[in-house]
Specification:
18 strands; alpha/beta; five-stranded antiparallel β-sheet
Amino acid sequence: HARRSSAMDDKNAFLASNPQYGYGGTIDSLRATEFARLARTGTVYLDNAGASLYSEKQVRDAAEDLVTHVYSNPHSSAQSQESISVMRSRVLAFFGVDPTEYHVVFTSGCTDSLRKVGEAFPWDQGGGFLYSNLCHNSVIGIREYAADKGAEFHCIDVHQSSTLTPEGEDIFNRIKGPSIFAFPAQCNFSGIQCPLSIISSIQQKYPHIKILLDAAAFIGTSRLDLRRYPADYVCLSFYKMFGYPTGIGALLVRRGAEAVLNKRYFSGGTVEAVLASERYHIPRKNFEDRFEDGTVSFLSIMALRYGFDLLERLGIDSIHHHIASLTRFVHSTMASLRHPTGTPLCVFYSLDTCDKPDFHQGGIITFNLQQDDGFPIGYSEVERLALLCNIQLRTGCFCNPGACHRHIGLGPEIVKAHVEAGHVCWDQKDLIKGKATGAVRLSLGHVNTYEDCVAFLSFLKNAF
């Protein structure tokens, strides 16, 4: 009884300090009615940056739609075409713009969107591909297209600042040809949110440089206003926002920025005329028609509305504040955990503190654990023990080498030496010569609760 009373007192103190937690007191009923599988399976789901959780209502509504209506191939059906057009407008409305300002190209996901930009951009020896050191591999991979055409590529340090470093300014000033600067709205490794104000400042000072925004890790938990921050190319995956459907994403292209993109490959649905006998084809004039190869995943597109229904019902700002409350609580409690020797249990790779009024930290806490003598505990061991407690986390570098190596302190020569020693992505070599090769990532989402966080914190206290 005393333990239950103490736990209740702790929660009441949390609620008093975090009035924006729980969507006005509805989080518990939401969990019980739309995410009942979590309680039924005893799962503590803390990998929302990997994939957001879909609601059961969302899936039921999508299934009811499919068994009620007949959706045919949009190349055959004007009705399907109109439904897709309506969804394009809804996608844009979520980001504060409309079809007069942006195109929506449906893709298989954020990675596919990034690839389409890389393939179609007019790289040449006078231009360059400039990318933040916080970028995901799917962004960094664009440099191969640039390098093949003789363009420069540079990894730029943009870290909690709305201005470039002097080194970055020098690079931007030197490159005069068609170029792209790419950065993530939120780093998927650390959860650090990059300053979106840099978009307009670069566009005004360097009109030949297009802005490519990787929005995948940001948009499910924070508001992206493209009218205020008009990136030229915005790439996203919908499962990162609301879990279902998977295999569908979008490339949002600011009107005017599409003019430089020259798509070479053509396919079904992308041409007005073509000859099989000679090299002759005429691309379709409409940008979306030209860039969406073959038949789009139209049934998945129809299902998007139910994911947007969920986010709009909760409110993206309410989601942001709910997650921020939990992130501050978990981070501060983890920071207080110490061994009897006084050595901190946790080493963090996110912001030093979440207790800031401007709060430029998303719902991600990335860390490693250490023993009482400061020797690191391998992330694979943490993951295995967490799974035994039915806690789902993510470990490794999360396909983000720049942020991972920067935070952990792995220089190029160390990384290459690790490869020589047999360490590659996806293996279980979490420690090499006493040095961590990756980290543990906890990521919170719109349906996580105070109880989820307490369960994770209890796991840390009991297991380590």
